[in-house]
Amino acid sequence: MEPKDSPIPRWSLGSGSGLHYGSFVNSLSSLTPKAEQTEEPAISQRRSYIAVAVLCYINLLNYTERYTIAGVLPDIQQFFRINDGTAALIQTVFICSFLLLAPFFGYLGDRYNRKYIMIGGLIVWLVTAAGSSFVTES
User: Fold this and answer.
1) Spatial distance between the Cα atoms of 33 and 78, rounded to a whole number of angstroms
2) Does the model's pTM come out above 0.70?
């Protein structure tokens, strides 16, 4: 017979059986004895929808921004009078910086408060976007 305080693993069946979604879950809540567990306050449904809408909008802006340079590259070439090789370097540098920084911020997001990381990223993005509007011909 098992001790009374042993953790009960959660399994998923995807039905109305009351079991949680996901395969065997080794989360902190399944490993902590019930006496030490605390109930988290429920988040309102309206707040959940707002959070999802904000995240979807930010994701839309993120993917849109990745293709902005490609869409306006001929205008950039004409404005700054640059050749095809230099123009291609603009997109390459952008994608490579994204390639290198995405895992780094993924690492930070797993360990620190994601809200503050997102706010910091949005501030950098907004300042950069606003600053780029002051660029003049060389």
Assistant:
1) 67
2) no
